[in-house]
Amino acid sequence: MFxxxxxxxxxxxxxxxxxxxxxxxxxxxxxxxxxxxxxxHVRFAxxxxxxxxxxxxxxxxxxxxxxxxxxxxxxxxIHPGYGxxxxxxxxSKICQEHxxxxxxxxxxxxxxxxxxxxAKATMKAAGVPTVPGSDGLxxxxxxxxxxxxxxxxxxxxxxxxxxxxxGMREVWKKEDLRKAWDSARQEAAAAFGNDGMYMEKLIExxxxxEIQIVGDSTGRACHLSERDCSIQRRHQKLTExxxxxxxxxxxxxxxxxxxxxxxxYIKYEGAGTIEFLVDKHRNFYFMEMNTRIQVEHPIxxxxxxxxxxxxxxxxxxxxxxxGKNYTPNLHSIECRINAEDPYNDxxxxxxxxxxxxxxxxxxxxxxxxxxxxxxxxxxxDSMIAKLITTAQTREEAINKxxxxxxxxxxxxxxxxxxxxxxxxxxxxxxxxxxxxxxxxTFKMKDPEEME
Length: 451
Fold this sequence. Notes:
Blueprint: E1 4-7, H1 11-24, E2 27-33, H2 40-44, E3 47-52, H3 63-72, E4 77-79, H4 89-97, E5 101-102, H5 107-114, H6 116-126, H7 141-151, E6 155-159, E7 168-171, H8 177-192, E8 197-201, E9 207-215, E10 221-228, E11 232-233, E12 236-237, E13 239-242, H9 249-265, E14 270-278, E15 284-290, H10 297-304, H11 308-316, E16 331-338, E17 340-341, E18 347-348, E19 351-352, E20 355-357, E21 364-368, E22 375-376, E23 383-391, H12 394-407, E24 409-411, H13 417-423, H14 427-430, H15 438-441, H16 447-450
Parallel strand pairs: 1-2, 1-4, 2-3, 4-5
Antiparallel strand pairs: 6-7, 6-8, 9-10, 9-14, 11-12, 13-16, 14-15, 16-23, 17-18, 19-22, 20-24, 21-23
Helix pairs in contact: 4-5, 12-13
């Protein structure tokens, strides 16, 4: 087993990993930028190393500084968390070259599944349903026009190196294709240094449902059931739940089997997520694979009583998995609390937190790195907390979330707590009747209207 793990991340996920390390008797090393000196992950790790200034490219994305921090602290493994370098094949390879275990996918696996076009081709070969579209990358605009005509509008243009909704364009008619092609490529080149595009048939108003899988070094994989991530704004998830209110026993078996088949076909090692689009007829299509821990992993942990970070560490240490597939026996909901103003088009709201009262009680979990007196800096993602409630039924989990949101007090900055509170009262959400188009029509009510 590892003696010391360096966590190449910040915020709540760094703290989350440190906690599991502590429980497993493994020493932890935090890395931090000058802007994060007062963050909780720095306080609670056994050791902490400053790796650079506030800007990510000079600190959390600076591979040489992170490897140097691992070497001076004698860390024998690096956990990358999510975001930053978690799906960077070059970093995974550098860790290998320095005899440091990367707690994540191999460089080859990241390249294979990180490139969206090659991932789709791989899944097709594995017999997993994929969305109709281009085979591999589109070489020219002429080819783009031809494929769109063949599969029929509406279509979705996607950056092969994409993520976070960048380099994606919905195209509803032929006249809009050229503009979408040019702008998506420019955006992808700026964001990822890669303007490669592929095309898929646009599945209208789908559900976004993902399956959590774990694979080990023996080539065996299992699934830990689904998460419904359909409520999104600009392709960014806002809240997730498990089980999905749209799920049937038959569909769960089919999707779970497809995810395990995919993981075993590529001999996937570690925790990963296979993301699917599910249409209104419950046909499902492979969308992408994430070769890392997901932001929303706690809801899976809650419903099957399973520490996913611990499992990642065990698999990385060469310990085989049980091979058992899990079905949720509870209901869990996660609300991502961001430092954004939901009354002002979710504008970022950095600043100092003057008051913080955390919710508690039975079935309430809060994953956060912030506290009263903590300053939210503008350099990183705006998520400051994940509020998770778990209960016997969906209705109880929603009622628990309402109560927990009412208890959650943060002053000094704007947060998305009011948005989540209104969401929990929305009739379509309560009915479980929502798709990825939900936020297109959702409107925040003024505080006066709520009284």
